[in-house]
Specification:
The protein is an alpha/beta fold and 236 residues long. The protein contains eight helices and seven strands, in the order ααβαβαββαβαααββ. The structure holds S-adenosylmethionine.
């Protein structure tokens, strides 16, 4: 049995889904979020700098996909970055963007990271935790590879909190986005999966509890764009 065979059916479905949309992933990310995703990633980078009171030496970006956060970390903090993801076509896109930067992409399952204990100063995950077959196990695994005092930063879609806006956004996210995504990517299921998975994912405060249960300390969060997304952080 190979390492890939240990993955459950949900993981395999997610892996195949991202393989199918890898060629349009970046364009659709920026288009459907009106480029807000770029701003959110830059806030994640700044959060690490603030929490660590300076730049880390070595960062890991799991579920790194086409590598946008891995690259933003390297550019913003000047550190060495490892990006990992289990979807080969997403990593191929990431590798085409790295040029000569100290960013290395590794094909790996976030639930079984191929890294020793306590080797990274910071771990990030953007729009990936929601896709894990077992998010709690993913958090425990991220904690394992962080050094004592290391930082985790999570960027993820969340639950909008502004009264009228949340209904307008919900209409867009549930009824318009899946059609536009399907039209451009040719994959209806992938862009229906997006609002469905966000609906099932823990809200802001529940994710704080998940972080504590996984053994992290001092968790916190801030809403981004009225809670469309949220930035969570914690320490080992
Ligand atoms: C929505 S994309 C996010 C990509 C990138 N972080 C970004 O900010 O655009 C989710 C990524 O998580 C990856 N992924 C999901 N489950 C995974 C797992 N168990 N192990 C590794 N990668 C996983 C998918 O292959 C996909 O590339």
């Amino acid at each position: 049995m190979t390492e890939r065979d240990y993955r459950g059916p949900d993981s395999r479905r997610v892996q195949e889904m991202f393989a199918g949309i890898a060629h349009r992933y970046d364009f659709l990310n920026h288009f459907l979020s009106v480029s807000m995703d770029r701003h959110w990633r830059s806030l994640a980078v700044r959060k690490i700098e603030t929490l660590m009171r300076g730049a880390p030496r070595l960062c890991l970006d799991v579920c790194s996909g086409t590598g946008d956060l891995a690259l933003a970390l390297q550019r913003g903090l000047g550190c060495e970055v490892v990006g990992s993801d289990f979807c080969h076509p997403m990593l191929t896109r990431a590798n085409s963007k790295i040029e000569k930067r100290p960013v290395r992409m590794v094909e790996a399952d976030t639930l079984r990271l191929p890294f020793p204990d306590h080797c990274f100063d910071a771990v990030t995950i953007a729009f990936g935790l929601r896709n894990l077959e077992d998010p709690s196990q993913g958090l425990v695994e991220m904690q394992r590879v962080l050094r004592p005092g290391g930082i985790i930063v999570i960027l993820e879609f969340s639950k909008p909190v502004v009264p009228v806006f949340k209904h307008v956004f919900s209409l867009y996210f549930r009824h318009i986005l899946p059609h536009v995504g399907a039209l451009i990517s040719g994959d209806r299921a992938a862009y229906q999966y997006l609002p469905d998975s966000v609906r099932k994912f823990p809200a802001q405060r529940e994710l704080l509890s998940l972080l504590l249960s996984a053994g992290f300390k001092n968790p916190g969060y801030r809403n981004l764009s009225g809670g469309i997304a949220a930035l969570h952080w914690a320490q080992t």
